[in-house]
Amino acid sequence: MSIGLVACSQENASEVAPVQIEITPTPISTPTPASIFEENFTLKDCNFSIQTRRKYQCGYLQVPLDYGEPDGLKIDISIAIFYAENPTSKENPLAYLHGGPGSHSLETIPFIFNSVFSSLAPTRDLVFFDQRGVGTSKPSLNCPEVIDDTISSLNIKQSIEDQQASFMSALHKCHDRLVEEGINFSHFNTLSSARDANSIRNALGYEVWDLLGVSYGTRLAQTIMREFPESIGKVVLDSSYGLEQDIYASVPQHADRAFRLLIDRCISDTECHENYPHLETKLYRAVSQLDEYPMPGNAVMIKADATSNNGFAAENIPTLMTGNRFVSVLFQSMYQSELIPWLPEVISNVSAGNVEAANILLSNDLSTMQYTSLGQYYSVQCPDEISFTNLAFLRESSWESEFFRKFFDSQDLYAKEHISICEFWDASSSAWKENQPVVSSIPSLILTGEFDPITPPSDGETVAGNLSNSSFVIIPGASHGVLFSSACALFIATEFLKSPVRPDSLDTKCANGIGNIDWVTPLKKTGFQAYSDPISGIESIKPEGWDNQAPGFFSRTSLGLVGLAQQIVPGTTAEDLLPTLVESFGVAASNTDLGEIKTDLYSWGITEISSNGQITILATTTIGSSAAVVLASGLPSQRNDLIESILRPVTKYFRVQYK
């Protein structure tokens, strides 16, 4: 979900009783052979590549556009199924319900499968599908007009009013084009997607399956629990909210909480407070400065590109960082657990007049924007959320929120924007039951992140209160989508899915031992510890607290922005290897010879490479019949720190122990 979230009104909530579902299903599944898939689905190219021992297939399932007219027009739901390695497995299949609404599922499989799903469900079938109107399903309600408008306006100084007017104009164009293509937005709501999910289950021959919903996927999961309870064994809800919640009215309070929590946690941590003092003052100063004097910069959008070697291409985009754009980037970054420890440094840098890191965060937002079908987002949110709220209620929630009011809604546009969009989007309002809590005894695990800026723990606790056979777990230090960032959350979910014990008897002790945040330390204060690689023979040091991405590769943040690599390349010399390394950065990269660093053992040649707004400092030397490479990457403003605080100490301790 984005800052453009929506809401459900509590008005007249007491008039209709919650939907009661008291059922304890028997978790027995029927394994699905590939022949069933090939019989019921139109096979298609998966359009993704992934390293796995599992057999997998992709295809389309035709479903009714309108389930009230089953023999009428059909649409295609795009599906990928990964078969259990053991074809006789009796474990329930697991269906993944992605978020958004509008987020693509199949296109993101390469980014999440091996890190999450291969360990979460190693002995069961896994089912992924793009919900109707999304991604590779047909039709897809993408809005390239909005993406183009967003990119073209990034280097323009606009008032909030002008920015909103430009967005609304682009969204109108998308809406009108989709209408011309024959799209009826009233058929793309959550209830229709729940019926699609049940059609997929039936077509795959499963009697019962388990559900994993994340973010908006938790709303879809609860709808399936209400409509088809007998089809579900267990449910995992990650970053959840209830159907009855007015999520758009909740956004201002949740945003306030997220900013307040970030600042307070930094203040209470001795090291963070010492490195980034007066953080709240710096945040206000940074926004004020950028509002008056926007700062130029550069962002990079990573796009899918079938012609490139790795399937992606980088597009450089000139930017003008404004105060409104900066706080929006901060808010979106709070969704990612891995980025939270970096935000105090980003705020401090911007307050000091340096927006390089802020543009890296913006680049992250731009690169994920292409994986959302915005037309489907509004086709869901308008009938399922906005239709149950009103202008006065949204406006009141904004006015009562200090941070949100100042940073996001100083011109009183938040409520008007969402109401006006849904007025012209013209999707029929959903039935009142879509605004009522789902009450169920289906075994459920509700996971939530402490820092989640959009579905905080209070939301998940409310959902858990409606599910009598559930366990509610808060993951400290984590944010939105905890399964994708927390080993503890993944362990708990794995145990829940495979264990016969009641949810409230789960071992959740790992969540109790988390709490301290490893705030990013300024490069000047980087500490080191011993490092050795028995395969290459390297004996060296590595930065404390950095993530080990691969043997010899370390990253300061999850974006890989500041990184360190130490490698041995056999059968060559530093002189011969250097041109190849420089060439690997692409034809647009530039390089500069920075001289030498001499240590007790070696003389290292130092080369700076500039590419896509970032720099890499290469140190190369010849050791016997091999070339040694140490590189440190980061932002141009970090050049001196990369050399003096990272590269120089690492090359000083670098050794090779030959067997």
What does this protein look like?
It is a single chain. The protein is built from 21 helices and 23 strands. The relative contact order is 0.11. Mean pLDDT is 90; it is low at 1-31. A hairpin with a 4-residue loop joins β14 (528-533) and β15. The protein has 659 residues and is of the alpha/beta class. The strands form 5 sheets. It has a 9-stranded mixed beta sheet, sandwiched between helices. Among the domains are: 36-141 and 185-245 and 433-509, Rossmann fold; 523-656, Protein Transport Mog1p, Chain A (3-Layer(aba) Sandwich). α14 (391-399) packs antiparallel against α16. It is globular.
Tell me the span between the first and last alpha carbons. Answer: 53 Å
Percent range for β-strand residues: 15-25%
Q: Under CATH, the topology of the domain at 36-141 and 185-245 and 433-509 is which? A: Rossmann fold
Can you give the helix content as a percent range? Answer: 25-40%
- Please tally the β strands and state the result: 23
Unreliable spans = 1-31
Cα-atom radius of gyration? 26 Å
User: Which strand order spans the largest sheet, edge to edge or round the barrel?
Assistant: 2-3-4-6-5-7-8-12-13
Task: Describe the secondary-structure layout.
Elements: E1 19-21, H1 34-40, E2 42-43, E3 56-64, E4 74-82, E5 94-97, H2 109-120, E6 126-130, H3 144-152, H4 160-180, H5 190-204, E7 209-214, H6 216-227, E8 232-238, H7 247-268, H8 270-275, H9 279-292, E9 295-304, E10 312-321, H10 323-333, H11 343-351, H12 356-369, H13 374-386, H14 391-399, H15 402-407, H16 414-425, E11 438-440, E12 444-449, H17 457-466, E13 470-475, H18 487-498, H19 509-512, E14 528-533, E15 538-543, E16 547-550, E17 553-555, E18 563-570, H20 574-583, E19 590-598, E20 603-611, E21 614-623, E22 626-634, H21 639-653, E23 655-656
Parallel strand pairs: 1-11, 5-6, 5-7, 7-8, 8-12, 12-13
Antiparallel strand pairs: 2-3, 3-4, 4-6, 9-10, 14-15, 15-23, 16-17, 17-18, 18-22, 19-20, 20-21, 21-22
